[in-house]
Amino acid sequence: MRFRRRQYLVKPRLQFRIAFIVLLSMVLVLMVSFTGFYFFAVEELVKFNHPRIPLILERVNYALLGSFGISAVAVTLAVIYLTHKIAGPLYRFEKSMGAVGRGDLTHVVKIRRGDELKDLEAAMNGMIKNLRDKVIAGEKLLTAPYVETEVLPPGSDIGQITDGKPSKKEK
Questions:
Q1: Which pLDDT band, with edges at 50, 70 and 90, does 122 fall under?
Q2: For a designed S-S bond to 89, which of 20, 85, 111, 128 qualifies (C-beta 3.0 to 4.6 A apart)?
Q3: Measured on CA atoms in the order 138, 140, 146, 151, is the torsion positive or negative?
Q4: Residue ranges of the domains in the chain?
Q5: Is residue 123 predicted with pLDDT exceeding 90?
């Protein structure tokens, strides 16, 4: 069975937070690297004192802004796609835990092939199976016939009582 998520923003708050952090990191790296390069290049170009230099710098500015905009959009889409591989399984785990919390111990957690957190899927399915086994064992214990047992007098040892009568040592 192959199922696909139609919605890429499964947990928007988490995905946007991660996208924001990645974009902020990208902006900082680009600012530091391009600032040094750009000002060094401008300083060298201005030394030539050519009338076309302002036109060239204007074109470079537009090219840098355009490439930054395209990069930002591409990085945002890539981050949303990658976080989709994590947020989707987290969403499924939340739904599965809700089902188990409501008492459905037959529930099986399934995440898509290629998604992250496969180890967590196996651990949750193992936990649900163990819970189901313990509930079944408890139900068997509750439905088992009651067997009356003899209560030993205080301070008695099991080895001291035979046939319901105290041994000779005790007398």
A1: very high
A2: 111
A3: negative
A4: 12-143
A5: yes
